[in-house]
Design goal:
- It holds the Pfam family Ribosomal_L25p.
- The chain is α/β, with parallel strands linked by helices.
- The protein has one domain (2-93): Ribosomal Protein L25, Chain P (Beta Barrel), CATH 2.40.240.10.
- The protein has helices spanning 14-22, 44-50; strands spanning 2-8, 25-31, 38-43, 61-65, 68-79, 86-93.
- A 6-stranded mixed barrel has the order 1-3-2-6-5-4.
- It is globular and about 30 Å long.
C-alpha cells in the first residue's frame, strides 16, 4: 500500500492554490458520502513520483493526516495541459 504524508489546509480559492503551486505544493481534497470534506496540501514531487507507479490509480492509498490514517482511492487528478505538473487531486474515502 502506498503512503502519502499530507497536511490540512484552511484556505481555498484560486489565489491560495497558486501560492501553493509556487511553493511546489499541490492542493487536494478528501471527500465521501456522509463524510466531512477535508482540504489537503500535498508535496508535488512525492505525488508526481508516486503516480507513476502502477497501483496508484487502482489500489487503496494510505493518507497520514495529523497522526490519523485514512484509506482512500484517487478519484481525479487535474494535470497541466503541456507542463509536467499536477494541478489538483481528489481522493475518495475507501
Amino acid at each position: 500500500m502506498l503512503i502519502l504524508q499530507v497536511e490540512i489546509r484552511k484556505d481555498k480559492g484560486k489565489s491560495f492554490s497558486r501560492q501553493l503551486r509556487i511553493k511546489n505544493k499541490l492542493p487536494g481534497v478528501l471527500y465521501g458520502i456522509n463524510k466531512t470534506e477535508i482540504l489537503l496540501v500535498l508535496d508535488h514531487n512525492s505525488v508526481f513520483n508516486l503516480q507513476k507507479k502502477e497501483g496508484f490509480y487502482k489500489e487503496n492509498l494510505l493518507l497520514l493526516i495529523q497522526d490519523q490514517k485514512y484509506k482512500v482511492k484517487v478519484q481525479a487528478i487535474q494535470k497541466h495541459p503541456f507542463k509536467l505538473k499536477l494541478l489538483h487531486i481528489d481522493f475518495l474515502y475507501a
